Amino acid sequence: MHNMINGSFQFSSDDDSDNSPHDFESCVSDLEYGLSDLNNLNYSSYSGGGMHSHIQADLDRQHLLGDTSRNSVYEKVVADGIEDLEHQERYERLLYRAQVEDLNEVSGIGCLYQSGVDRLGRPVVVFCGKWFPANNINLEKALLYLIKLLDPIVKGDYVIAYFHTLTSANNYPSLHWLREVYSVLPYKYKKNLKAFYIVHPTFWTKMMTWWFTTFMAPAIKAKVHSLPGVEHLYSAITKDQLEIPAYITEYDMATNGLHYFTPVPQATCS
Q: Which residues form the CRAL-TRIO domain (predicted)?
């Protein structure tokens, strides 16, 4: 007990001491900083009088120079904040337009829709690449329809099933448009997306996926899964929850045969 008491007093003494080694280091550091400031002063300019004003001017100049890095950081924070605000305002304008404008010409195509939920109860968004007329559609209205459909969904976790079945060059949107869409969508779209399934991938989709997730959307790279057939998708989404066009299942059977895969329900989905 005596040793514990002594140790306790010793600890308190070290903490409260006016002669802490850290205090000495601080004083030495301050002294060296002050000497450095004095060494940088231009003494030749003080011989003609007005020494105090000359010293003050030099000190002010050094302080201004010394604050440059802090000013740069502050300016960057402000610029980033303004950029985020402008980004949010732009999305709000697009969301308003999506709610009031007539988008029947896009919704009627049927290439993008919600289809049930996955095994974890998360909404499933289906995109059929073959039905997306990339070269014969108003891409601005396509973006508005995308926002109209997804905005209420992305408030929580969700998954996307993209079917690349029988797509052609006429169905491929430009990289510029994909970049524009990704930059417009707020963070909640990326954060709450839990899986992006690509069914019937080709060499083109694999290259595009690699490029897109490497240089434009690294945050979703681990969420992208390429599946060679529809039945692989049933591990994450039950068959009764997945509504897809007949051409996809017909192609799948012709390519892979019948019952080529036995789905194992997943406990979790990445």
A: 99-256
